[in-house]
Design a protein that fits this description.
The structure is a single chain. The protein has 215 residues and is α+β, with helices and mostly antiparallel strands. It has one domain (24-184). The chain is 22% helix and 24% strand. The chain has helices at 2-20, 187-214; strands spanning 23-30, 46-52, 71-78, 89-96, 109-115, 130-134, 154-160, 179-180. The strands form two sheets. It has a five-stranded antiparallel beta sheet, with no helix packed on it. The protein is globular, with a radius of gyration of 23 Å.
Length: 215
Amino acid sequence: MRVRLLCVLAIFSVSCLAARATITLTINAGELRSSDGSELMPIGGQLFLVASTADAVFGAPRADYFVSGDDVILFRWSLQEIDEGPGYFTGSAPGLDLGDFIGLNSGDLLQLYWYPTLTAGATEPGEGTPYGFYRHPTGLDGSAPWVVPSDGSIVTLNFFTASSVLEGSNADELGWATFTVAPVPEASNLIFGGLALGLVAFRFMPQIRRKLAKS
């Protein structure tokens, strides 16, 4: 009986630790705008919270996928109607568990991406689609640093531009979707590049061998 009770208590303790080992993030952003800054991001536009899990470098979105390299999508939202209207975003990512993402650890960098022209039905960015991104290492305007916090944390990340209703510390241009998604490299181009490298290696291989023999 005592052994059974100890087992139950152990299981209960582990479950409590697991319940506490989650992260809640709240994201506030504005003003988010089109590629030239002339229009506010419309209701329904897509936002992603992305983490770099290994190299602290964010790869650019690909035409066939929203992230590349070691980056992982932690959460996705549609821009909703709030009091401030289009171009402003408030969203929550509750109950994020580090164990649900391969390689994700506290301290990994976080970055916000927004796609004004996409909607919830988009399964890939598509070539030429405008997007913007933002992160700040220490956080501005009351924001926590843009990194994955420790287990159990409840953190707010803010991104406000100077023209937003809160008159943030970021330049207006940082809220523009000034980047475009590059095309997926064609297989023929990859093959041609590999052949070119092979020909260069073949051309200089005798010289390399002679130098190695002398050394």
